[in-house]
Amino acid sequence: MLYLDHAATSWPKPPSVIKAITEALDSAGGNPGRGSHALADTAARCLTNCRISLARLLKVSAPERVVFTSGTTEGVNMVLKGTITQGQTVASSSMEHNAVMRPLTSLGRDRGVELRTVSADAEGYLNLDELAEVVEAVDALVVCHASNVTGTLQDLPRIAEIVARSKRRPWFVVDGAQTVGLVPIDLEELGIDALVFSGHKALLGPMGTGAVALGPRLAEHVRPWLEGGTGSRSEQLEQPQELPERLESGTPNTPGIAGLAAAVEYVERVGLDEIASIERERIGQLWERIEGTEGIELYGPPPGKPRTGVLSFNVSGQHPADVAAALDGAFEVACRAGLHCAPMAHRTIGTFPTGTVRLSVGHLTTEEEIEQAAEAVCSVTEMGE
Ligand code: PLP
What we know:
By secondary structure, this protein is an alpha/beta fold. The protein folds into 2 domains: 2-10 and 271-383, Aspartate Aminotransferase, domain 1, CATH 3.90.1150; 15-270, 3-Layer(aba) Sandwich (Aspartate Aminotransferase, domain 2), CATH 3.40.640. The chain is built from 13 helices and 13 strands. It has helices at residues 15-27, 38-58, 72-81, 98-111, 128-134, 156-165, 187-190, 216-219, 254-270, 272-290, 320-331, 343-349, 367-383; strands at 2-3, 66-69, 89-93, 114-118, 140-144, 171-175, 194-198, 210-214, 296-299, 310-315, 333-334, 336-338, 356-360. The strands form 3 sheets. The chain has a 7-stranded mixed beta sheet with strand order 2-8-7-6-5-3-4, with helices on both faces. A 4-stranded antiparallel beta sheet has the order 9-10-13-12, covered by helices on one side. Helix 6 links the parallel strand 5 and strand 6 (171-175). Helix 3 runs parallel beside helix 4 (98-111). The two termini are 26 Å apart. The relative contact order is 0.17. Pyridoxal-5'-phosphate binds at residues 71-73, 97, 99, 144, 148, 175, 177-178, 198.
């Protein structure tokens, strides 16, 4: 099987990640912070190690500002529902995932929050003049660093500069689902208030893991959206105010977090720049190989522009789901078809409501595999004629 669905979740995971998960189930089998014995202490150390590793990766000076979640979806809900109050205004972009759009829509309904949308061009790049205007009129800005539909990588330093220079200084929230582990991000230098991400995509960690890295400003402010046992201050019925306990209630996913720590070490060892450059090369090869094939339309930025290893395309006269089924059935190419949970992005690139076929590479994808995938795509195109 040729796995080209890394944007959904990376696979296979590094052996060190699998080993760390297995070892944690064995030697860190206690409940962290909730037992006075070695197994609980080892579990607590797993959490601390991972927090420190993520803080190092994302340049967060206080590891307690790294809050574990089950992924980007939980992180976005935590940040937005814990921060945005009745009648505030929030801007996002026309490239957002439903992990952002659905919580924002419900805040619109339940808290009268007004939503503004920054438009993007046909390749998915945000209109930064429009963004500069919008930030002066909103309480928060949420932007997706890289699109899971087109691979478009936004100019985060430029966006950060616009936010930092604005008079209004709205909360700056970044959906890093497709970039943490791939693109170096310095949270404090960029003035990001919340960087939300999953562990199972570019970071190469297990599913059900992720975190929110909070900047010092928002760390003071964000209220818990989930309350419960933290293993600390058990005498009080109010949620503790300290981080990370304020935002982390209930027994954590210790084996997953141990795997995530190993994943951070792995991507640091291989090097983020190295991983990103391999993925860009592979997707460039794929683009060039299938571009110009009759009946194929490619979307998103061409090679050479800022992008990740995601490529969306369509075959004229064929439904994306049929193309994906043929790629899987006849050629064992695993990919994804449809809207990829990002209907707004498809409206932007003109592929709503049927969507696209999406191929997404990992750093272990080889040139031969790309050639194989390209041949499969061309054969499927001919099958439809
Ligand atoms: N945001 C983007 C841009 C994504 O690509 C995804 C997942 O595909 C998410 C958010 C949601 O991530 P998760 O399902 O891990 O919570």
